[in-house]
Amino acid sequence: MEYEVVIPAAGQGKRMGADRNKLLLEVEGKPIIIHTLEVFEKDVNCLGIILAIHASDREELVSLFNQFNICKVIHTVEGGRERQQSVHNALKKASCDIVLVHDGARPFIQPSTIQKLVQTANDSGAAIAAVPVKDTIKVVRKGTVDKTIERSSLWSIQTPQAFRLSMIIKAYDEAELDGVMGTDDASLVEKMGEKIQVVEADYDNIKLTTKEDLIFAEAIFKKRRRS
Ligand code: CTP
Ligand code: MG
Questions:
Q1: Domain ranges of the chain
Q2: Which of 81, 136, 174, 190 has an alpha carbon 20 to 30 Å from 147's alpha carbon atom?
Q3: Is 4 strand, coil or helix?
Q4: Residue nearest (by alpha carbon) to ligand 1 atom 23
Q5: Is 227's pLDDT higher than 90?
């Protein structure tokens, strides 16, 4: 089942505390963004990658595409101030019936998960990658516990998130009109009353956010080299 992928890569990586976009930092001998792009470069069902980037990263990225033979980037668009704007700009260039949105900062996504997401979105419109929450989650107000939420109903939501193109475009257009900011892509689709299917993914599909995550990333690469 064929699809296109939108990859927001126009963040500043503030929580990583590096002096530049965290996606350009190297792990396992390659910039993080290259690891992420390679997953889709290798997937025959991926027809094209639409990347949202900062103008200041463009030159470096283009030279990395050449160096690492990344050929599937069909459009690069200007990133916005928020991730939502970056994704919206990129979605406007999409043309395939099924489109995935995937963070540039999640290099460990498994092809099997991508395939399940694409199939599920094709069958029912929207599907997101997630894992069951391991911790106990409590609502805390002013330093004291308000209540404990039943854990079995809690899932940590990741990307990719896969959608029928018409559905996600409509959701993003409506959010812009209404001035709504969602914390993920699916939340904008939820606002339209659409059902979102959940596809169980892997705990190692982490988003590289802080310095500690680079240590976890090295460990995940090491584990994958062994197996
Ligand atoms: N992103 C984007 N445009 C923005 C903000 C974020 O394209 N205006 C992208 C990031 O490059 C990243 C993904 O969205 O691939 C997830 O965002 P996050 O992990 O928060 O990255 P940053 O925003 O770069 O990091 P921080 O929030 O720590 O500054
Ligand atoms: Mg951010």
A1: 3-129+158-226
A2: 190
A3: strand
A4: 11
A5: no
Q: 């680079």: which residue's tokens?
A: 214
Strands 26-27 and 3-8: unpaired
**Homologous superfamily assigned to 3-129+158-226:** Spore Coat Polysaccharide Biosynthesis Protein SpsA; Chain A (3.90.550.10)
> pLDDT by residue (tens digit) across 43-99?
999 999 999 999 999 999 999 999 999 999 999 999 999 999 999 999 999 999 999
Ligand 1 mean position, distance from CA 109 (Å): 17
pLDDT, position 172 = 98
Q: With CA atoms as reference, report the closest residue to 23 among 99, 75, 86, 94.
A: 86
Q: What are phi and psi of 167, to 5 degrees?
A: -70, -45
DSSP of 94-125: --SSEEEE--TT-TT--HHHHHHHHHHHHHHS
Helix (H) and strand (E) counts in the chain: 7, 11
Tens-place pLDDT, residues 111-143: 999 999 999 999 999 999 999 999 999 999 999
Q: Locate the ligand 1 atom nearest the alpha carbon of residue 33 and give its number.
A: 15
Residue whose Cα lies nearest atom 10 of ligand 1: it is 11
Indicate which atom in ligand 1 lies nearest the CA of residue 15.
28
CA–centroid distance, 1 to ligand 2, in Å, is 31
